[in-house]
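dumping these here so i dont lose them again. two proteins, back to back, each one seq then structure tokens. dont judge the mess
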Amino acid sequence: MLATLLPVLTEALEGGVDAARAAARALGDPLGPRLDEALRLSAAALEADPGALATQLLARLDGRSAPERALLDHCRRDARGLVPRAPALQGPFPPLKRRWKAHQRQVNALLVLPDGDTVVSSSEDGQLLAWSLSDPEVQRRLEGHIGPVNRVDLSPDGAVFVTAGDDRTVRVWDAGTLACRHTLTGHRHYVRDVAVSNDRVMSVCEDKAVRTWDRDTGAVVEVAEGAHRHTPRAVALSKDGNWGVTSSVDNAVLVWDPGSGERDGEVYDAGAHVSFIGTLYLSVGGTSDVGHKDGPGVLVFTEDGALLSAEKELIRWDADMKAEAWVLLHAWSVNALALVPGRPWAVTASYDLKLVDLDRGEVLHTLPAPERGANAVAVAPDGRTVVAGGQQGHIEVWRLDPSDASDHHISRVANLAVSPDGQRVATGDTDNVVRLWDPSTGRRVATLDAHPESGQRPLAWLPDGRLMTTRQDARKEGPNLYLWTADGERVADFRIERNAGWATSVHALGPLRSGPVLVSNMGEGMARLDPSTGAITPFEDFTRQVSEIAVSGDDRFAATLGYFSDVQAKGEEERGLGDSRSQLQGWDVTTGRCLWREAAVIPEGKKWGGSFSRLRFVGDRLFNAVADPDRVQARDPETGQVLETWALPGWCAALTWDGEALWAACHEGEDNPHPVVLLRLEEGGRLVRQATLPAGLQGVKLWPRAGLVGGALGDEAVLMELSGEEVARMRCDGAPRELALLPDEVLVAGCGDGRVVVMEVRG
């Protein structure tokens, strides 16, 4: 049966994808459901090209059962075109089970009640609602609060939950009947957070008071007026009721005895200065050697009594709550945190949802958050259902199963680099997560111990086969450059500082063949790092925000591209550097001296244009592209003098040297999408038009020595000959933007949805 299954499915596809799916379902478990889902996900590709069936199945099925492995063996024999070496189109997310519009404004808090089906949501729209996860219709509107409801918390015994509102009240609700047991009054301002144990309720308010109540009677235990110097942010009670903690905007975390409601010390106190602008605040000047850069907005005790605190860092504290057990950086502030029942895991809510191993402080898996990020998160008692609430009022329900997690990135692949021997590919995403891949198998080798942050950071392979990655320090201490082996072992750390002692943001790396690395030091200039000794030598002349570094083949010269804002450009104009946003500089690598610089002047009457790009050293020349008017220039790298110019028919998308001639790909014309023109640049400024490539081709890459050009057409990776004739294509689930061609016609694509696809060309 399996030997004839592929032809049967191919025949069924003549009646459409639905007919093929019906044939797949008829197979029953275990292959039928998996095959049906693969066909569903590949519907667009198969409707466009039914002949891509074998390739699409290879891209989605991983052979987890014997029948599936047998089917994939047949697919490997029949697949043609760009064929994936590993099932790269799996994941990276587990299935979204349900999504609905719950509120008119942002969801502030969520919890799932012990019955495993009822979720309570609170919102900035003033509503407190109870929903059924199995049938998301409003079960009940919980009346009582007037105005926004800020927080919800469930007691450890599951008997009650508590809510805090802008109406200055705390309410205690019966988790079974959803009836309000008590309304706790006394706060004189908005109640920002509330926590409940099996016998106590603690709340914090903008009136700076910390209030402790008896959970069962509603009686006041203690009112600590002015407990914090500035507005409190969060409160948590340990599951056994022995400890309470509160935090404030001035970055102090205090410890409390819930039994008496009295203060019992502090975790730390940074003593930050706070300035308020309306409802916004700015906290500066914290001096603590431990803890957060800003006051944590989330506090949670784990089942075993460990304190977790979160802002842009997630910190697990030791048993005495005085030292950090580990620190896990996040790209954005953490808005909420939920524990996973029965496992040492937690889910953090920010611009994505991260599943964190609480023992090791590592991210196990990432889910996409609702649009514009998640403000609230909860995990059902089954430990397999995650509920997230977003800024637009949506609630999403996800199945949580880390065993289904794929190897791929959660965010767009922004960097892709091939090791000198071609045995490893490094990819970095827009969260600064770096992964290593074995192109011979298409499988992930390692996820590097990188630090998530907003915006991608450069990475570069050194000539000795080691990889250098970068980060922007979120804290004053710590390295911002890392060195790794090709198998992902971290072997060295380095730190590039500004004059004030803070780690700088590295925007570009330029490895030298002799071993050192040129490093851009944003706002301060350039430096040369020797990885073997750790010696850092600053270059003499000042430059700003270098975005690209190119080095000559003999390591004598370097060229850099800088990019200025309007304000910075005015400052550069005063320094005699022109009124441009783009600057090209030439350097003597040995002495660290700037040899020349040129500012690309914005054309008269325009606000944009005149920018440099595409730096290439070829022999004794430096090549660069310039926009508006579009052209390629050849320069003397020592003087910066322009030796030759080629006028281009459009802006330069790619520039490369094949050993004999210079090649360029340009986006031509006024129409959108622009057709792409492939050009050969010859002496005397002569252009030879080789081919016109498909309009809309993005991420163009040239490999003239192999006689090939590649790019993306929508969600398809396309490989063509230099004549423009198509060689092969494959549809991915996200636009393949970063491309690299390896020997033996192996194409690696990094996609906009985080997938990394390794494909080989088959007849």
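---- next one ----
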Amino acid sequence: MPRKIDPIIFVVSFVFVVFISSIYYLTYQDKQADNFSSYQENFEKLTLLDTKFENFLMRSLYFNNYDTITTNLEGFDQTLLKLEASSISNEFDSSFGAILVELRHKFQLEQDLLEYHKSLNSVSVNSIHYLFDLRSTINNSDTLKEKQKLLIDELLFSLMQLFTGIQPNQITLQNKTRQVKNYALSLNNDYLINFYTQAVLLQKNMSILLTSVDEHKEIQLIQDITNSINLLQISYQKQIDSYQYLNVFLAFITFILLLILILLHLKSLKIAQENLSFRFAVENSDNFIIMTDTKRKITYVNESFQKNTGFSKEDVLGRSPNLLKSNQTKKSTFVQMESSLQAQKTWKGEFINKRKDGSIFYVASSIIPIIIKGELHSYLSIGLDITKHIKQKEELQEAKLELETKVHIRTLELREKADALEETLANLKDFQKQLVETEKMSALGSLVAGVAHEINTPVGVSLTAITYIQQETQTLFKSIEEGNLRKTALNEYVSSVTAMSDSIYISLQTAIKLVRSFKQVAIDQHTEEKRIFNLKEYCDEVILSLHSKFRTEQVKVHNHIDENIHINSYAGIYSQIFTNFILNSLLHAFDKDIENKTIKIRGFIEEEYLHLIYEDNGRGIDKKHIDKIFNPFFTTKLGQGGSGLGLHIVYNLIHHKLQGDIICTNTTPGVKMQIYIPMSELTYKKSISA
């Protein structure tokens, strides 16, 4: 007959297997905890190094220690290599393989960004040194005026502000750069040309350097690292939870096996041998094992209990387990425990206990009432020290909270920067609006100056004629008083007074016409109400208001607008359009060497549009500028009377107020402006002729 297996040996063997399994999982759990800490530390190191790189880019971009940041990036590379060589994908989550590949790719992008940053920085440093050398040469030159040298110093000062991180006024910087360019081209001075070229190159490099932080943010390496830390923490938390369930399960299995072993021990004839086996299993268990009698007095503790609590058997035998109380365990835990034990049911829960030295530790415990032959014999308590796992969980929670706090602070900082940018943009729009209004007043000022000059002539003629009549009248009265008045003298007086009266009448009629024209144009420019007017006659009034400027520049203006066109529209807009076109031609188109300076204005109805054509025979517009002439602040005469807003105002009035379109083209010679205004925007009536 086959030999029967001794049940005690079987149970002890099973207990031993469970015990070895518990040790294995505890050891594996400790290893996983160490690996988690190591991986988390590496990821946090990557976060710190990436933050240092971002801070490096956000600091002054021009005198940085590239050796330090290069060392930091090498540290980043070494840390990333450790993670790539590790088993993190197998130990925690398989997606870490793809994550590390992405981190390597983005890290390479940051390395490329640093090298690009370094090269631009080097070029910028060389440019600033070269500019200082050129400045010394220019200051020693006798061919340049002090005003031009002073301009070089002012531009160099603005460039140094830009180079050291102080943002200069961009409009001022661009104006000074253009002035240097104009001087360089007009004087054909190689030093000035080189100075202008290097200044433009430095501004371009500084602009590219300032975008380095945005390029780094677009890489989003810090976000990937943060996601990796979160994924690692989630994976580890899942492992901790599974380990806790497994440990509780093993503890329960151990408890069951120990209970079976105790029952077998009580029933066995070999009590001494069975007690020895039981004590061996219990004494060598990693679990706390406490036996108490029915009055809750301790009758037995194992070696693990003594090592973990610091209490010896002599300290605890005959005493209540309450000596381990820390007063930190919830009262509800004890209430539930008492309820279960009084019902002679097993209770499971967690205690926060206190060691002999006063230190706190956490225990996952099971308390089982031992019933023999229907009567309560004793209580068996099996506990597992889970302090390390609780601490890690708390640390994990703190780290998560700290990370969320950092993200929140960073979000607030970015929001503040966004608000500041919006405020700056609003200020710039207000400033632009003020400049546009100033330009409109400038056009009206030109009308005022022209009309005032034109009125002086007829008024002067009238004043001279009246003075002559007064003198002749006094002479006539004197002859009458002396009694020597002759008929011929009287006839000459009457003839002279008649001629002078006609001259005064003609001059005053001219002045009245000028005032009436200017009054209507000025009113139209300051009102946005529609009125019906003859387009050709209104254009003549604008031309008359600017006549003094034509006479000074010897320019002939021909108005060929169809005289039968009457429209109901904004007369002030047409005044501003014609005025800006004419003044623009006088300022930009006609050089001194151009003969027969001519401006032609045509207007007619074409299908569903009012078609206006403005032409001059000036020097035209450079091809590289023709696409920019309607841009705000664009002018080739900056500092010489041009503001860059005249044609921009015209463009906006035509597009937004009249819902029309404007096209600019070069002719041979001169420039042609064509305006198309839909008749749906006009109330048109015309005396049809031809």
